[in-house]
């Protein structure tokens, strides 16, 4: 009987770690006050492309990114990537309450420009603590340039008009969202464009659940979605394809102290008011550069899409961020 209780206790502990799908070390040992200087760059180390066989996407590029002149670069939770004449441009939010932009030049330069803005609340003041500043998801309205940021600690969505991060934010008055567990709130969000330019936010919670929130009414409705892609996996990011808003990337994370992090990327489709699972695109596990990936973004290419995922380091002494790119030849 006693032995049975030991096995049951061990299973319960494992399930608890897996359901959290995130480490707690940073909560127990908070980092010191961050530093920041005007001279900021991102140091770019290009990674070897290997170990990605057997997936529906092709591992195309990998970067190990280290900040120079600041340590606000740690904790990036979501991203929006764009390809331009200056290279790969990335916007990202962090769970420390910062909005970052950086560029990876196309000519294999070792450094790229890096800028930061500290996120502000509806009173125009910088968000002052972890609970208020825990930004987890980013959505951008390409028509207006407005940026929507979802927060997990105190579940809410703030809008920054035209990417103005130095003024007061607007709280999006979303209705009919349920109460969410502490630190398992709004983890994933993407903007969907419907007919006649009608826009909606698709929200996902780490603890489970999806909601579709039209920006014309802010009246959110729960929608059915697929189960997680495996035991202990939790949703961390959603991103609609640039020209196919009903086709959505969903990123899931698994973590235990014994295995470390694992990541799965899936393809969902919004059909008849529900999210339908269309297939698994990618699993990241050794020997690939596995890490605590938290954000996904897609760029249209000539043959399909380039998918980027970004990591939020687990270990406190892990002073780099991983950015991986995968090519997907999209097929119906």
Report on the architecture of this protein:
The structure is a single chain. The chain has 332 residues and is mainly β. It is globular and about 45 Å long. The strands form four sheets. It has a nine-stranded antiparallel β-sheet with strand order 3-4-5-6-1-2-21-20-19, with no helix packed on it. Mean pLDDT is 87; it is low at 1-8, 14-20 and 24-32. It has one domain: 5 Propeller (Tachylectin-2, Chain A). The protein starts with a helix and ends with a strand. 8% of the residues lie in helices and 49% in strands. The relative contact order is 0.16.
- Overall mean pLDDT stands at 87
Order of helices and strands: HHEEEEEEHEEEEEEEEEEEEEEE
Number of helices: 3
CATH class: Mainly Beta
Strand order of the largest sheet: 3-4-5-6-1-2-21-20-19
In the CATH classification, which architecture applies?
5 Propeller
| Termini separation | 54 Å
Low-confidence stretches: 1-8, 14-20, 24-32
- What does the main sheet amount to? 9 strands, antiparallel
Number of strands: 21
Helix content: under 10%
Structural class: mainly beta
| Envelope shape | globular
Strand content: over 45%
Q: What do we call the CATH topology?
A: Tachylectin-2, Chain A
Domains, number: 1
Radius of gyration: 19 Å
Organism: Asticcacaulis endophyticus
Keywords: Signal
Signal peptide: 1-18
Pfam family, one: Phytase-like
Topology, please?
Blueprint: H1 2-20, H2 25-28, E1 36-46, E2 58-70, E3 76-84, E4 87-94, E5 98-104, E6 111-118, H3 130-133, E7 135-140, E8 147-151, E9 156-160, E10 170-171, E11 186-193, E12 199-205, E13 210-214, E14 221-223, E15 234-241, E16 244-256, E17 260-271, E18 274-284, E19 293-300, E20 305-311, E21 321-328
Antiparallel strand pairs: 1-2, 1-6, 2-21, 3-4, 4-5, 5-6, 7-8, 8-9, 9-10, 11-12, 12-13, 13-14, 15-16, 16-17, 17-18, 19-20, 20-21
């Amino acid at each position: 009987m006693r032995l049975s209780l030991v096995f049951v206790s061990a299973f319960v502990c494992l399930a608890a770690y897996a359901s959290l799908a995130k480490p707690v070390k940073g909560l127990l040992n908070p980092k010191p006050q961050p530093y920041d200087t005007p001279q900021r760059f991102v140091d770019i180390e290009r990674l070897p492309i290997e170990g990605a066989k057997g997936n529906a996407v092709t591992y195309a590029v990998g970067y190990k990114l280290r900040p120079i002149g600041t340590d606000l670069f740690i904790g990036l939770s979501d991203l929006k990537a764009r390809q331009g004449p200056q290279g790969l441009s990335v916007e990202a939010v962090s769970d420390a309450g910062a909005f970052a932009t950086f560029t990876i030049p196309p000519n294999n330069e070792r450094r790229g420009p890096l800028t930061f803005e500290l996120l502000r609340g509806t009173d125009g003041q910088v968000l002052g603590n972890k609970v208020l500043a825990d930004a987890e998801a980013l959505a951008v309205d390409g028509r207006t340039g407005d940026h929507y940021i979802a927060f997990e600690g105190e579940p809410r969505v703030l809008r920054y008009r035209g990417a103005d991060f130095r003024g007061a934010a607007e709280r999006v008055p979303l209705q009919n969202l349920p109460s969410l567990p502490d630190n398992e709130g709004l983890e994933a969000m993407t903007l969907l464009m419907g007919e006649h330019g009608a826009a909606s936010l698709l929200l996902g919670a780490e603890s489970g659940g999806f909601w579709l929130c039209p920006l014309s009414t802010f009246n959110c409705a729960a929608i059915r979605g697929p189960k997680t892609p495996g035991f202990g996996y939790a949703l961390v990011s959603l991103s609609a394809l640039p020209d196919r808003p009903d086709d959505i990337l969903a990123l899931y994370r698994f973590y235990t102290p014994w295995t470390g992090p694992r990541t799965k990327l899936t393809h969902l489709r919004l059909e008849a008011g529900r999210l339908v699972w269309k297939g698994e695109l990618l699993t990241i596990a050794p020997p690939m550069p596995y890490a605590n990936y938290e954000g996904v973004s897609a760029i249209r290419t000539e043959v399909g899409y380039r998918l980027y995922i970004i990591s939020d380091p687990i270990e406190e002494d892990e002073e780099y961020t991983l950015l991986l790119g995968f090519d997907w030849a999209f097929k119906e």
